[in-house]
Amino acid sequence: MTATSRLPSGFYRVLAFLALVAAVVAIFALIEPRYLSMRNLTAVTRHMAANGLAALGLTFVVVVRKYDLSFPGIASFAAMTIGFLIAGGYSLGAAIAAGLGVGIAVGLVNGFAVAYGRLPDIVTTIATGSIVGGMAFLYTGGRTIFQNFMTSGLIDLNDIRFLGLNASFYFLIAIYGVAYLVLHHSRFGASFRAAGENPVSAHLSGIPVRLYTMGAFAVCAATAVLAVVLILAESGTADTNEGANFLMPAYAAVFLGAALLGGASIPATLAGTALITILLDGFSLLGVPYYYSDGVVSLILLAGVVLFDERLRREAAFLMTFLGFGRKIGETHP
């Protein structure tokens, strides 16, 4: 056995991912030299922070083999809650705590309905997301909130930099580090993954599968609120549709990362987020209309779902073999 053959398969996946990122960056840099500027790098990391936090919580839901479509609505409702309280003179800490409170409460409702009520996750989260998204209009009737934002300290979160990068990027890395230790290097994380991989066996082993499932939805809601806090800090206003742009990038990041690195995980989601953000930022810098960039993200999401789903991979491999693209067809029918 050679030294090369002893390398784990994950090593080659990482190399392939890095090569893909390098190729994408090189293409954008050739088309638009400003792509490699420090200003654009700062913008990429800032956008990556918000998208990455939204995708992080979704990873926990995907790990337990569920789907959550409510977190954009939760983020919008939390954004208006935070903005309303800031405009009312409350402190920034109290406003963010209230936003987290309402977000996690909705996440727990989702989790309880899916885990204990056995309601379908997609339908349930569409419904709750629509409800809380509509509730975001109750504060101002749909008008933008901007009062007291400049003096609350919220804008400062977007202005703090270290080594040329926004503090939000370091916050993202810190949160991902904690999530990695919890999900991949703790008994809690092992139980979490077991609840998704084989819920029956996990239940027989004494793992409270339903409780872990409910917790996953709560985590997803919490990270969506943290993500929208960064959006509020960047824009300086609170609107009723602040979380509307989280859905596609978050799902694309989770499933693309899972397809590239061999399964849903915290590092895979971070990798997927980086690639999606690099693509979206490049399209924006080139002036590509949003409907084209959204189409590309949708195609990436579809590809990630196909590659991540084991059943679909087997069917695709069978189809390729049947059509004559595999070795076995030539061996069977010389």
From TrEMBL:
Source organism per UniProt: Ancylobacter moscoviensis
Keywords from the named record: Cell inner membrane, Cell membrane, Membrane, Transmembrane, Transmembrane helix, Transport
Compartments where found: Cell membrane
Native organism taxonomy: Bacteria, Pseudomonadati, Pseudomonadota, Alphaproteobacteria, Hyphomicrobiales
Ranges annotated as spanning the membrane: 12-31, 43-63, 94-116, 122-141, 162-183, 211-233, 254-278, 290-308
Transferase listed as a keyword: no
Protein name: Autoinducer 2 import system permease protein LsrC
Function as written in the Swiss-Prot or TrEMBL entry: Part of the ABC transporter complex LsrABCD involved in autoinducer 2 (AI-2) import. Probably responsible for the translocation of the substrate across the membrane.
Domain of life: Bacteria
Assembly, per entry: The complex is composed of two ATP-binding proteins (LsrA), two transmembrane proteins (LsrC and LsrD) and a solute-binding protein (LsrB).
CDD domains associated with the record: TM_PBP1_transp_AraH_like
Xref: PANTHER family: ABC TRANSPORTER PERMEASE PROTEIN YPHD-RELATED-RELATED, AUTOINDUCER 2 IMPORT SYSTEM PERMEASE PROTEIN LSRC
Main localisation: membrane
Entry-linked Pfam families: BPD_transp_2
UniProt topology in membrane: Multi-pass membrane protein
